[in-house]
Amino acid sequence: MLSRVADSIYWLNRYVERAENVARFVDVNLNLLLDSPVGVQQQWRPLIVTTGDLALFTEKYGEFNSDNVIHFLTFDKDYPNSIVSCLQRARENARSIREVISSEMWEQINAFYLMVTEASQDSSSLIELSSFFAEVKMASHLFAGVMDGTMSHNEGWHFGQIGRLLERADKVTRILDVKYFILLPSVHDVGSTLDELQWIALLKSASAYEMYRKRQHRISPQEVAQFLILEREFPRSLQFCLLQAERSLHQITGCTPGMWTDPVERHLGKLRSELDFITMDEIMEVGIHEFLDSVQARLNQLGKVIFESFFSFKLTA
Amino acid sequence: MQFSQYDPGDFYDELFNEDGAPRAAAKFLVERIDALSIEELTRRQQVAQNSLFKLGVTFNVYSDSQGTERIFPFDVIPRIISSSEWDELAAGLKQRIQALNLFIDDIYHDQKIIKDGVIPAHIIESSPGYLKPCVGLNPPNGIWCHITGTDLVRDRDGEWYVLEDNMRCPSGVSYVLENRRVMKSTFPQLFNSTAIKPVDDYASQLLETLMNLAPSGLPDPTVVVLTPGIYNSAYFEHSFLAQQMGVELVEGRDLMISDGYLQMKTTKGLKRVDVIYRRIDDDFIDPLEFRPDSMLGVPGLMQVYREGRVAIANSLGTGVADDKVVYAYVPEMIKYYLGEEQKLANVPTYLCWEDDQLAYVLDNLDKLVVKSANESGGYGMLVGPHSTPEQREEFATRIKAQPRNYIAQPTLNLSRVPTLIDQSFEGCHVDLRPYILYGKEVYINPGGLTRVALKRGSLVVNSSQGGGSKDTWVVQNEE
Hints:
- The structure holds 2 protein chains of 2 kinds.
- By secondary structure, chain A is mainly alpha-helical.
- Chain A has helices at about 5-35, 45-50, 55-60, 65-75, 85-95, 105-120, 125-150, 155-180, 195-205, 210-215, 220-230, 240-255, 265-275, 280-285, 290-310.
- Chain A contains 15 helices and no strands.
- In chain A, helix 6 packs antiparallel against helix 7 (about 125-150), helix 8 packs antiparallel against helix 9 and helix 13 runs antiparallel to helix 15 (about 290-310).
- Chain B has 2 domains: about 5-345 and about 410-475, no CATH class; about 350-410, Dna Ligase, domain 1.
- In chain B, helix 2 (about 40-55) packs across helix 6 (about 175-185).
């Protein structure tokens, strides 16, 4: 398939997934606030820190209050990773490959885009916001489902899968990281009810609460981290995303799983197999935040290698 | 009861006779619509519009900020043509395409038509569509214009006239196909009970035409549609046609010349391309031979084309026939190449480069339509009866400065079709663009795009100027 087309379908899926995860981010914070004791200061800074776009935010907005942060992440057209920008770019990519994707996918992305742009023109209250984020999540699920059910699971589809899964892998590490930056009122609160409530809110924002309960029963920080990083069966865990992305990658290249012929297979395979054999104790030894940070760096690197191997065409003699 | 208040006015109405009775071919439609309430009809119109919008059947407007898409307004009252009338039109179009193709082939080779004094050499040489790099080209089977969208209009007396031939990259056929799909769900009973000629085989016919151009001996040639990209006004159509034919939609940056062939860049390396359906203008196709600043084309493509290693539809150089001065000679071409009289008339055309005709044009600017010879889309045009003295003054100056670049035609009273506007019917002016494919044989898609001027009294039907569209039904005559 055309390199440009593969690139577009990969980014189409990344942007849709990104929009969904931004909604999850903001939603987790909104949930945390609702559970915070009266008098505790609202914390919005961690959200911006974990996006990695701190400088951009402070330059434009300065103050970390809910209005500023929510506007920045949701409706700011100048911020390339806001929900509205993601949808705009997702749609642009879809438009350039309409003949490759199914009409149903196009209709869904179009409807999704219209829903978000319409919402961006309303000034919303808190309650409307949380239903807006629910809608964004659902629209993204619909898109993934429509794509799964209406498009041939061909090369293009697999590129789309890789885009979605790598984006999700990156974002789950960031959602987990939000908790690292959120300060408890005092050290005594570690392990307190408030702490547990925050962990529950975090699980919920990854749609992981119920599935976690079935598996672990008790809420403990280490178990939650383990679930979101290493759980092989939960579709929003880091390891699940890597396993599935690797499967799609080998479908594209035709190379036997476990082997590699190009750098993408090597990078992805290496990261995935490390996670196969790592334990939570080892992760804690490095520090969860540091570990997540290094995973993010390697996912970025992987993205670059994918671009070089498949999308930027170089003539080899 | 719906149409009882409709006034066909002092125009040729496509659905009604002068005495207000429905034309034979339109009777079934008028009866059906009369049986619906205006609310029901308006509701169906809305459903149809929504369905087109949801599918993204849109066009981009250049003057708008980048990437603004608009829906091409759609009206649910179709235009009807009886099959006997259609057959005559089709015969006229076929004759015209064949003559024009012979003309293009001739002027890029021996120029017999110039040597025999039928067309002056300076007209051809001064035409911006006449491309020197195309001299001596031999496109497969001698066919240059594979896809044509001829603009036809009907005057008050009911006569058909050809307004333009559009031999380069005519657009709009996607609306024909999409409008029909929507109409089938809007009036399913009518399609069940009446013989309306289907249009759906266009994509198959187009693919067949394109595959026939491939260098012989290739069992499964690679065909692509070449688009300037998503900001082009007709991008929807490019994408739609590629999808309907199941071929790749490519941009210039997806292509390169390698090993003497045109190749596209894929995730698995280079892949050879055999046939291009190009939807970019000649000037942009190869920066090495045409506009050097073009980013849309492929450097070196022209040479590969000349060597016959890739086929291009339409061929390069066909734009010379879109020059409105050249257009004026089509009746002579038909005589010259085919030895026949034209079956489908040209609009009488005054050529401003001829002194006596120039004088007449300048004296009658308030009655004539003046057109720039090489612009399209309703730009660069003066509609005399609707113009102000200042505008006429301005055009007179322009014409005198460059008489070769202007032609004038009498103002035609375009025929009308009732159109649903604000819950009532109004007669709106229409034109017709049938789509013609010239492959092994000439294929004409039955019907074509009916464009309608939605502004009251307006004669301009272009989508960029507030026009809309209607479905066109070719209906079998009752024996």
